Amino acid sequence: MPIGNERQSVREQYGRETGLTTRMSIWQPPADGITPQDIAVEILRAADPKSLLEIGCGTGLLAERISRELPGTDVLATDQSERMVELTAERGVAAQVVDADDLPFDDDRFEAVLAAWMLYHVPDLDRTLAGVRRVLRPGGSFVAITNGDHHAGGLLAAAGAPLLITQFSSENGEAALRRHFDRVEACEVTPLAVADHQRAQEYLASFDAELAANLPPYEGERSYPGAVTLFTAR
Ligand SMILES: C[S@@+](CC[C@H](N)C(=O)[O-])C[C@H]1O[C@@H](n2cnc3c(N)ncnc32)[C@H](O)[C@@H]1O
Q1: What is the whole-number distance in angstroms between the Cα of residue 71 and the centre of ligand 1?
Q2: Which DSSP state fits 161?
Q3: Where does the UniProt annotation place the signal sequence (predicted)?
């Protein structure tokens, strides 16, 4: 299942937004209605940073929300994909093409850094985390969101696919962060993927067309639990 060590390269996968928006579209908030993005915004609101760097910003949804809800925070959104940067800039957010493993910023430049669902993609996780530590001012907050090994496991199993085990997950993320940060806190969230057969197939096809073909037909909508963790490191 291509996510960390993709058959389809990361650059190819995010050269256009189609796959990402398809994947995002089937997720609904957990029973309490509080999404990982809501929690990230509240953590950042409490930290009240004057400057925030987002790495791997994708289409810029979260960067736009942070800019709107935290007007005192100067947000710079970055991604390796030119198309993602273009989409983010269209939302009125300052955006720049940047590889997360080679951050072109001075030491201690930002009061907060955000990495949402992207650390499982970077070619050298420790290099990226060391770079984040370097550009983050001492006492600043690093917020990282990622999926657990069982994220959408029911849907993958229905298509005969194994779990997605990545280099930065709910299970192994804290250990990775502790190699670079003194304090790490984790918060678990369980969103639900809700999809009829066609949407479930589209979700699977955004990773691998073969998987979509393997999903046995079903009527109506089904719900598949997700597993998401939000880490805060300081
Ligand atoms: C799963 S998407 C998440 C996008 C966004 N953060 C969100 O929550 O919707 C992963 C994003 O990370 C970007 N990305 C992957 N590897 C990267 C790297 N080494 N440097 C910068 N961006 C990267 C991809 O281009 C893509 O936009």
Answers
A1: 24
A2: P
A3: none
